[in-house]
Amino acid sequence: MENKRGVRKGAWTYEEDKLLKACINKYGEGKWHLVSQRAGLNRCRKSCRLRWLNYLSPEINRESFSEDEVDMILRLHKLLGNRWTLIAGRLPGRTANDVKNYWHTHLRRKMVPEKLEEKEEKEKPKETMKTHEVIKPQPRTLSSHSHWLNEKNNIMVKPIGTVSTKEVTAAKDRDDKETMVTNQIGRDCVDAMWWDSLLNLGEQECGEKEGSCSLFQENVILELPKVDDFFWDSKLCDIGSLWDL
DNA sequence: AACTAGCTCAACCGCCGGTTC
DNA sequence: GGAACCGGCGGTTGAGCTAGT
Fold first, then answer.
1. Domains and CATH numbers, chain A
2. How many CA atoms lie within 13 A of A29 on its CB side?
3. Cβ atoms of residues A1 and A9 within 8 Å
4. Which DSSP state fits A178?
5. pLDDT value at residue A26
6. Residue A2, beta-bridge partner list
7. Which of A40, A42, A69, A147 can bridge A65 by disulfide, Cβ–Cβ 3.0-4.6 Å?
8. 0.85 cut: is pTM over it?
């Protein structure tokens, strides 16, 4: 099967696989736009990349998912949603496509009854509104030894909400290192707080004293960080904590 | 044996963010 | 600044397989 441009589509043949493997072994991964040319394949860059990453790569584990892996997928999906590459990243030998397929064929159905229960719960007539205690965190300061801080400066961290993008841009323009550094450290610190708080949720009773696990400070809006920027950083991620989620 | 429905998973598609020019 | 290109991602599709009737 070929498309309008004469590029082959559809299932890969044994011969094509052999050519692709030989090419990757010779030149390494990457430069996918060159792969079809180098390998003598009439396939588009995406097709080559996908075939390698999802099927031909020697790192791929093709055995069925173990109980531990399934449990990990469920927990990570709860945490990350449909971010299959991130989930697959914690499962050695598993590709995002594998995880996604497994989720859709096996696990989604498991989750649906739970969702229905949630829905039914929501549709129940509401009891009288109770006031909820808003948990306010204690400001956290870092010691001068903290790796979150510049080794030379013991800077009191500003939450990033207090340093606007404009300020940072202006700081960059005038080469104001302190503001720039403060902003970055603020981000790093908030990253740490966010993750720390998330992991602690399972251990701490949220009803305990103020400040135990919230992400918000009074009058200051903290921007939640992007998970993938720091999530897998070994400094932050004690994977064992996931079991407490 | 023949047909059908459901399942699995490889592959495609469209979109996005980053980089280069 | 923006167009072109690239790598990468998540959603979706459909061919092939299997189990049930």
1. 14-56 (1.10.10), 67-122 (1.10.10.60), 160-244 (no CATH)
2. 10
3. yes
4. H
5. 85
6. A8
7. A69
8. no
A94 within 8 A of A76, measured Cβ to Cβ = no
A41: number of Cβ within 10 Å: 21
The set of strand C positions with any atom below 7 Å of a protein CB reads 5-12, 15-16
Strand B positions closer than 7 A to protein CB: 7-14
Burial classification of residue A217, based on how many CB atoms lie within 10 Å of its CB (0-12 exposed, 13-18 middle, 19 or more buried): middle
DSSP A203-245: TS-TTSSTTSS-S-BTTBPPPPPPHHHHTT-TTT--GGGGGG-
> Which residues surround strand C, with CB < 7 Å?
A 11, 30-33, 45-46, 49, 82-86, 96-97, 100-101, 104
Closest nt by CA–C1' to A50: B11
- Chunk chain A into consecutive blocks of 10 residues (it has 245) and report each block's average pLDDT, rounded to whole numbers: 71 89 86 86 88 89 87 88 88 90 80 50 39 35 36 32 36 39 39 42 36 33 41 45 53
* A8 SS3 class: strand
Q: In this structure, what token pair is assigned to residue A230?
A: 């720091």
